[in-house]
Amino acid sequence: MELPTEPVGSLPRPATLQAAIKGFDEGTVTRAQLTAEQDAACQDSVTRMEATGSPIVSDGEQRASSFATYPLTDTLAGTGLADHLAGDGQYFAIFTDGHHRQLPRLTGGPFRYKTFAADYLAKAVPMAHKPLKQAVIAPSMLALLYPLDGEVAGYNREQFLADLCDECEKDIRKCFAAGAARVSIDFTEGRLACRNDPNNPWTGRGMLEHFIELNNRVINRFDAAERRNIGVHTCPGGDCDATHSADVDYAELLPSMFKMNAGYFLMQLSSEPDKERVYKLIGEHSRADANGLPQVCFVGVINPQNPRVETADEVCDALMSASRHIPKERLGSTDDCGFSPFSVDVKPKHGSPDIARDIAFQKIAERVKGTRLASERLGLSG
Ligand SMILES: [Zn+2]
Asked: Is the model more confident about 381 or about 60?
Protein backbone atom coordinates (compact mmCIF):
# COMPACT_ATOMS: atom_id res chain seq x y z
CA MET A 1 0.00 0.00 0.00
CA GLU A 2 1.24 3.50 -0.88
CA LEU A 3 2.08 6.06 1.78
CA PRO A 4 -1.13 7.93 2.62
CA THR A 5 -1.30 11.67 1.96
CA GLU A 6 -3.95 14.07 3.24
CA PRO A 7 -4.55 17.84 3.39
CA VAL A 8 -5.33 19.60 6.68
CA GLY A 9 -8.41 21.20 5.16
CA SER A 10 -8.57 24.93 4.49
CA LEU A 11 -7.81 27.01 1.40
CA PRO A 12 -7.71 30.80 1.00
CA ARG A 13 -11.17 32.18 0.29
CA PRO A 14 -11.28 33.85 -3.15
CA ALA A 15 -11.14 37.67 -3.08
CA THR A 16 -14.76 37.80 -4.29
CA LEU A 17 -15.89 35.63 -1.35
CA GLN A 18 -13.92 37.74 1.14
CA ALA A 19 -15.58 40.86 -0.31
CA ALA A 20 -19.00 39.19 0.04
CA ILE A 21 -18.30 38.36 3.71
CA LYS A 22 -17.43 42.02 4.33
CA GLY A 23 -20.59 43.12 2.53
CA PHE A 24 -22.67 40.65 4.56
CA ASP A 25 -21.27 42.14 7.80
CA GLU A 26 -22.08 45.64 6.52
CA GLY A 27 -25.58 44.71 5.35
CA THR A 28 -24.99 45.33 1.64
CA VAL A 29 -24.85 41.62 0.71
CA THR A 30 -27.77 39.28 1.44
CA ARG A 31 -27.38 35.82 2.93
CA ALA A 32 -28.48 34.32 -0.41
CA GLN A 33 -25.73 36.23 -2.22
CA LEU A 34 -23.13 35.14 0.34
CA THR A 35 -24.27 31.52 0.05
CA ALA A 36 -23.96 31.69 -3.74
CA GLU A 37 -20.33 32.89 -3.38
CA GLN A 38 -19.62 30.11 -0.87
CA ASP A 39 -21.18 27.48 -3.15
CA ALA A 40 -18.99 28.61 -6.05
CA ALA A 41 -15.84 28.68 -3.89
CA CYS A 42 -16.53 25.19 -2.48
CA GLN A 43 -17.15 23.71 -5.92
CA ASP A 44 -13.96 25.31 -7.26
CA SER A 45 -12.01 24.03 -4.23
CA VAL A 46 -13.23 20.44 -4.59
CA THR A 47 -12.76 20.33 -8.37
CA ARG A 48 -9.27 21.78 -8.31
CA MET A 49 -8.15 19.66 -5.35
CA GLU A 50 -9.37 16.54 -7.14
CA ALA A 51 -7.38 17.64 -10.22
CA THR A 52 -4.15 17.57 -8.15
CA GLY A 53 -4.46 13.79 -7.91
CA SER A 54 -5.04 13.94 -4.17
CA PRO A 55 -6.73 10.72 -3.02
CA ILE A 56 -8.79 12.64 -0.44
CA VAL A 57 -10.11 16.20 -0.71
CA SER A 58 -11.98 18.90 1.22
CA ASP A 59 -14.20 21.87 0.40
CA GLY A 60 -11.40 24.18 1.55
CA GLU A 61 -13.54 25.24 4.54
CA GLN A 62 -14.93 28.00 2.32
CA ARG A 63 -18.12 28.38 4.41
CA ALA A 64 -16.38 28.48 7.82
CA SER A 65 -15.69 31.74 9.65
CA SER A 66 -12.51 30.02 10.86
CA PHE A 67 -11.25 26.56 11.83
CA ALA A 68 -12.03 27.40 15.48
CA THR A 69 -15.18 29.54 15.35
CA TYR A 70 -17.31 27.77 12.72
CA PRO A 71 -19.63 26.27 15.40
CA LEU A 72 -20.22 29.67 16.98
CA THR A 73 -20.49 32.46 14.43
CA ASP A 74 -21.26 33.04 10.75
CA THR A 75 -18.47 35.56 10.25
CA LEU A 76 -15.28 36.52 12.04
CA ALA A 77 -16.72 39.99 12.70
CA GLY A 78 -19.37 38.28 14.85
CA THR A 79 -22.43 38.34 12.57
CA GLY A 80 -24.70 35.50 13.72
CA LEU A 81 -22.95 34.85 17.04
CA ALA A 82 -24.50 31.90 18.93
CA ASP A 83 -26.47 32.24 22.19
CA HIS A 84 -24.66 32.78 25.49
CA LEU A 85 -21.60 34.32 23.85
CA ALA A 86 -20.14 37.83 23.75
CA GLY A 87 -17.49 38.97 21.27
CA ASP A 88 -14.87 40.03 23.80
CA GLY A 89 -13.24 36.77 24.91
CA GLN A 90 -9.58 35.98 25.40
CA TYR A 91 -6.96 36.18 22.72
CA PHE A 92 -6.57 32.75 21.29
CA ALA A 93 -3.25 33.75 19.76
CA ILE A 94 -0.88 36.63 19.15
CA PHE A 95 1.09 36.07 15.94
CA THR A 96 4.71 36.91 15.05
CA ASP A 97 3.65 39.83 12.84
CA GLY A 98 1.84 41.42 15.82
CA HIS A 99 -1.77 40.70 14.81
CA HIS A 100 -4.02 38.66 17.07
CA ARG A 101 -7.17 36.58 16.92
CA GLN A 102 -9.77 36.73 19.67
CA LEU A 103 -12.30 34.15 20.82
CA PRO A 104 -15.85 34.91 22.01
CA ARG A 105 -16.57 34.78 25.76
CA LEU A 106 -19.11 32.50 27.38
CA THR A 107 -21.76 34.43 29.33
CA GLY A 108 -24.07 31.59 30.36
CA GLY A 109 -25.24 28.06 29.66
CA PRO A 110 -26.04 25.68 28.21
CA PHE A 111 -23.28 25.67 25.62
CA ARG A 112 -24.52 24.49 22.22
CA TYR A 113 -23.05 24.53 18.70
CA LYS A 114 -25.00 26.62 16.26
CA THR A 115 -23.35 25.00 13.23
CA PHE A 116 -21.76 21.56 12.95
CA ALA A 117 -18.93 20.85 10.52
CA ALA A 118 -21.21 18.25 8.92
CA ASP A 119 -23.65 21.02 7.91
CA TYR A 120 -20.91 22.27 5.57
CA LEU A 121 -19.69 18.81 4.61
CA ALA A 122 -23.18 17.71 3.51
CA LYS A 123 -23.12 20.48 0.89
CA ALA A 124 -19.70 19.35 -0.39
CA VAL A 125 -20.64 15.67 -0.79
CA PRO A 126 -22.63 16.15 -4.04
CA MET A 127 -19.74 18.26 -5.44
CA ALA A 128 -17.07 15.57 -4.97
CA HIS A 129 -16.02 12.46 -6.87
CA LYS A 130 -13.37 11.41 -4.36
CA PRO A 131 -13.50 10.71 -0.61
CA LEU A 132 -13.87 13.83 1.52
CA LYS A 133 -12.19 14.70 4.77
CA GLN A 134 -13.51 17.16 7.31
CA ALA A 135 -11.63 19.10 9.97
CA VAL A 136 -13.29 19.86 13.31
CA ILE A 137 -12.20 21.99 16.23
CA ALA A 138 -10.76 20.43 19.39
CA PRO A 139 -12.58 20.69 22.72
CA SER A 140 -9.33 22.11 24.12
CA MET A 141 -9.63 25.20 21.92
CA LEU A 142 -13.26 25.87 22.80
CA ALA A 143 -12.48 25.34 26.49
CA LEU A 144 -10.90 28.79 26.20
CA LEU A 145 -14.38 30.30 25.74
CA TYR A 146 -14.82 29.93 29.49
CA PRO A 147 -13.17 32.81 31.38
CA LEU A 148 -9.69 31.84 32.57
CA ASP A 149 -10.50 32.78 36.17
CA GLY A 150 -13.77 32.86 38.07
CA GLU A 151 -17.07 31.28 37.21
CA VAL A 152 -19.91 32.06 34.82
CA ALA A 153 -23.06 32.67 36.91
CA GLY A 154 -25.29 29.60 37.00
CA TYR A 155 -23.00 27.51 34.80
CA ASN A 156 -19.86 26.14 36.38
CA ARG A 157 -16.77 25.04 34.50
CA GLU A 158 -17.48 21.31 34.82
CA GLN A 159 -21.04 21.73 33.49
CA PHE A 160 -19.58 23.62 30.55
CA LEU A 161 -16.88 21.02 29.85
CA ALA A 162 -19.47 18.22 29.94
CA ASP A 163 -21.66 20.06 27.39
CA LEU A 164 -18.58 20.92 25.31
CA CYS A 165 -17.45 17.28 25.10
CA ASP A 166 -20.97 16.22 24.05
CA GLU A 167 -21.02 18.84 21.28
CA CYS A 168 -17.54 17.87 20.04
CA GLU A 169 -18.48 14.18 19.95
CA LYS A 170 -21.64 15.04 18.03
CA ASP A 171 -19.57 17.17 15.62
CA ILE A 172 -17.36 14.18 14.74
CA ARG A 173 -20.18 11.61 14.56
CA LYS A 174 -22.23 13.86 12.30
CA CYS A 175 -19.26 14.18 9.89
CA PHE A 176 -18.99 10.41 9.49
CA ALA A 177 -22.77 10.12 9.16
CA ALA A 178 -22.73 12.79 6.41
CA GLY A 179 -20.10 10.84 4.47
CA ALA A 180 -16.66 11.94 5.68
CA ALA A 181 -13.96 9.32 5.09
CA ARG A 182 -11.70 10.99 7.64
CA VAL A 183 -12.14 13.58 10.41
CA SER A 184 -9.17 15.47 11.81
CA ILE A 185 -9.22 17.54 14.98
CA ASP A 186 -7.44 20.90 14.80
CA PHE A 187 -5.16 21.20 17.84
CA THR A 188 -3.07 24.31 17.13
CA GLU A 189 -3.43 25.41 20.78
CA GLY A 190 -1.33 22.42 21.91
CA ARG A 191 2.01 23.89 20.97
CA LEU A 192 0.90 27.39 21.98
CA ALA A 193 0.07 26.04 25.46
CA CYS A 194 3.84 25.63 25.97
CA ARG A 195 4.65 29.21 25.00
CA ASN A 196 4.29 31.13 28.26
CA ASP A 197 3.65 34.49 26.58
CA PRO A 198 3.10 37.23 29.22
CA ASN A 199 0.87 39.09 26.74
CA ASN A 200 -1.46 36.10 26.44
CA PRO A 201 -2.24 34.86 29.98
CA TRP A 202 -3.70 31.41 29.20
CA THR A 203 -0.44 30.30 27.54
CA GLY A 204 1.35 30.59 30.89
CA ARG A 205 -0.99 28.33 32.86
CA GLY A 206 0.56 24.97 31.99
CA MET A 207 -2.66 23.82 30.34
CA LEU A 208 -1.23 21.21 27.93
CA GLU A 209 -1.98 18.16 30.10
CA HIS A 210 -5.51 19.43 30.75
CA PHE A 211 -5.98 19.86 26.97
CA ILE A 212 -4.79 16.31 26.30
CA GLU A 213 -7.15 14.86 28.93
CA LEU A 214 -10.08 16.87 27.63
CA ASN A 215 -9.50 15.78 24.03
CA ASN A 216 -9.14 12.16 25.10
CA ARG A 217 -12.44 12.48 26.94
CA VAL A 218 -14.00 12.89 23.49
CA ILE A 219 -11.67 10.64 21.45
CA ASN A 220 -12.16 7.72 23.87
CA ARG A 221 -15.89 7.72 23.14
CA PHE A 222 -15.03 6.18 19.75
CA ASP A 223 -14.01 2.55 19.19
CA ALA A 224 -10.73 1.54 17.56
CA ALA A 225 -12.29 1.16 14.09
CA GLU A 226 -13.68 4.70 14.29
CA ARG A 227 -10.49 6.15 15.76
CA ARG A 228 -8.48 4.79 12.83
CA ASN A 229 -10.07 7.60 10.80
CA ILE A 230 -9.93 10.27 13.53
CA GLY A 231 -6.81 12.41 13.37
CA VAL A 232 -5.21 15.28 15.25
CA HIS A 233 -3.49 18.24 13.56
CA THR A 234 -0.68 20.15 15.25
CA CYS A 235 1.05 23.29 14.01
CA PRO A 236 2.54 26.56 15.27
CA GLY A 237 -0.37 28.51 13.74
CA GLY A 238 -0.87 29.81 10.24
CA ASP A 239 -2.67 33.09 9.62
CA CYS A 240 -1.81 35.99 7.31
CA ASP A 241 1.38 34.04 6.53
CA ALA A 242 2.53 34.26 10.19
CA THR A 243 2.87 31.77 13.09
CA HIS A 244 2.17 31.98 16.84
CA SER A 245 4.35 29.31 18.45
CA ALA A 246 7.10 28.22 16.06
CA ASP A 247 9.66 29.04 18.76
CA VAL A 248 8.26 26.35 21.08
CA ASP A 249 10.42 23.20 21.04
CA TYR A 250 8.47 20.24 19.64
CA ALA A 251 10.04 18.15 22.42
CA GLU A 252 7.71 19.95 24.86
CA LEU A 253 4.61 18.94 22.92
CA LEU A 254 5.10 15.57 21.24
CA PRO A 255 5.44 13.22 24.25
CA SER A 256 2.09 14.52 25.55
CA MET A 257 0.40 14.79 22.17
CA PHE A 258 0.80 11.11 21.34
CA LYS A 259 -1.05 10.23 24.55
CA MET A 260 -4.19 11.13 22.64
CA ASN A 261 -5.73 7.92 21.34
CA ALA A 262 -6.22 9.21 17.79
CA GLY A 263 -5.43 7.00 14.81
CA TYR A 264 -3.37 9.56 12.95
CA PHE A 265 -1.55 12.87 13.34
CA LEU A 266 -1.07 15.67 10.78
CA MET A 267 2.09 17.48 11.87
CA GLN A 268 3.75 20.69 10.69
CA LEU A 269 7.31 19.81 9.83
CA SER A 270 8.54 21.31 6.55
CA SER A 271 9.11 24.71 8.21
CA GLU A 272 11.03 23.20 11.17
CA PRO A 273 14.71 24.19 11.24
CA ASP A 274 15.86 20.71 12.38
CA LYS A 275 13.53 18.17 10.78
CA GLU A 276 15.70 15.14 11.51
CA ARG A 277 15.41 15.76 15.24
CA VAL A 278 11.62 15.99 15.04
CA TYR A 279 11.32 12.82 12.91
CA LYS A 280 13.30 11.11 15.63
CA LEU A 281 11.02 12.47 18.39
CA ILE A 282 7.99 11.24 16.45
CA GLY A 283 9.56 7.81 16.06
CA GLU A 284 10.23 7.66 19.78
CA HIS A 285 6.91 8.92 21.08
CA SER A 286 4.22 7.85 18.59
CA ARG A 287 2.59 4.56 19.58
CA ALA A 288 2.26 1.33 17.60
CA ASP A 289 -0.69 0.54 19.87
CA ALA A 290 -2.95 3.36 21.02
CA ASN A 291 -5.73 1.39 22.70
CA GLY A 292 -6.07 -1.06 19.86
CA LEU A 293 -4.74 0.77 16.82
CA PRO A 294 -1.46 2.16 15.47
CA GLN A 295 -0.84 5.91 15.31
CA VAL A 296 -0.05 6.91 11.71
CA CYS A 297 2.28 9.92 11.47
CA PHE A 298 1.68 12.34 8.58
CA VAL A 299 4.68 14.65 8.35
CA GLY A 300 4.34 18.12 6.86
CA VAL A 301 6.20 18.41 3.55
CA ILE A 302 4.59 21.64 2.28
CA ASN A 303 4.75 25.11 3.85
CA PRO A 304 1.47 26.96 3.14
CA GLN A 305 2.96 30.26 4.31
CA ASN A 306 5.74 30.35 1.75
CA PRO A 307 4.76 30.99 -1.88
CA ARG A 308 7.70 28.95 -3.22
CA VAL A 309 6.33 25.65 -4.53
CA GLU A 310 8.17 22.63 -3.12
CA THR A 311 9.18 20.06 -5.76
CA ALA A 312 8.10 16.42 -5.78
CA ASP A 313 11.76 15.45 -5.32
CA GLU A 314 11.99 17.57 -2.17
CA VAL A 315 8.82 15.95 -0.85
CA CYS A 316 10.22 12.51 -1.62
CA ASP A 317 13.56 13.30 0.07
CA ALA A 318 11.76 14.51 3.21
CA LEU A 319 9.75 11.30 3.41
CA MET A 320 12.86 9.17 2.87
CA SER A 321 14.52 10.99 5.80
CA ALA A 322 11.42 10.55 7.94
CA SER A 323 11.30 6.82 7.11
CA ARG A 324 14.65 6.34 8.82
CA HIS A 325 12.97 7.22 12.14
CA ILE A 326 9.28 6.42 11.66
CA PRO A 327 8.17 2.89 10.55
CA LYS A 328 7.02 3.15 6.92
CA GLU A 329 3.75 1.35 7.78
CA ARG A 330 2.95 4.32 10.04
CA LEU A 331 4.22 7.14 7.78
CA GLY A 332 2.27 9.59 5.61
CA SER A 333 2.54 13.13 4.23
CA THR A 334 0.52 16.30 4.70
CA ASP A 335 0.78 20.10 4.51
CA ASP A 336 2.16 21.93 7.53
CA CYS A 337 -1.23 23.54 8.13
CA GLY A 338 -4.39 24.53 6.34
CA PHE A 339 -3.65 27.06 3.59
CA SER A 340 -5.92 29.65 5.27
CA PRO A 341 -7.55 28.66 8.57
CA PHE A 342 -9.32 32.04 8.93
CA SER A 343 -11.86 33.23 6.34
CA VAL A 344 -10.48 36.75 6.16
CA ASP A 345 -6.83 36.43 5.13
CA VAL A 346 -5.16 38.41 2.33
CA LYS A 347 -2.11 36.07 2.29
CA PRO A 348 0.36 39.00 2.22
CA LYS A 349 3.47 37.03 1.27
CA HIS A 350 1.62 35.59 -1.72
CA GLY A 351 0.32 38.91 -3.06
CA SER A 352 -3.38 38.02 -2.92
CA PRO A 353 -5.69 35.22 -1.81
CA ASP A 354 -6.38 34.29 -5.44
CA ILE A 355 -2.66 33.88 -6.20
CA ALA A 356 -2.33 31.91 -2.93
CA ARG A 357 -5.12 29.54 -4.09
CA ASP A 358 -3.35 28.85 -7.38
CA ILE A 359 -0.11 28.17 -5.49
CA ALA A 360 -1.88 25.92 -2.96
CA PHE A 361 -3.11 23.57 -5.69
CA GLN A 362 0.37 23.44 -7.25
CA LYS A 363 1.81 22.58 -3.84
CA ILE A 364 -0.75 19.85 -3.22
CA ALA A 365 0.01 18.33 -6.65
CA GLU A 366 3.73 18.19 -5.80
CA ARG A 367 2.96 16.63 -2.41
CA VAL A 368 0.92 13.90 -4.10
CA LYS A 369 3.60 13.28 -6.73
CA GLY A 370 6.45 13.28 -4.23
CA THR A 371 4.61 10.92 -1.90
CA ARG A 372 4.11 8.48 -4.76
CA LEU A 373 7.85 8.66 -5.56
CA ALA A 374 8.72 7.90 -1.93
CA SER A 375 6.26 5.01 -1.88
CA GLU A 376 8.02 3.50 -4.89
CA ARG A 377 11.43 3.93 -3.31
CA LEU A 378 10.22 2.35 -0.09
CA GLY A 379 8.78 -0.60 -2.02
CA LEU A 380 5.22 0.25 -1.01
CA SER A 381 3.55 0.85 -4.38
CA GLY A 382 1.56 -1.55 -6.50
ZN1 LIG B 1 -2.59 24.37 11.49
From this structure: 60
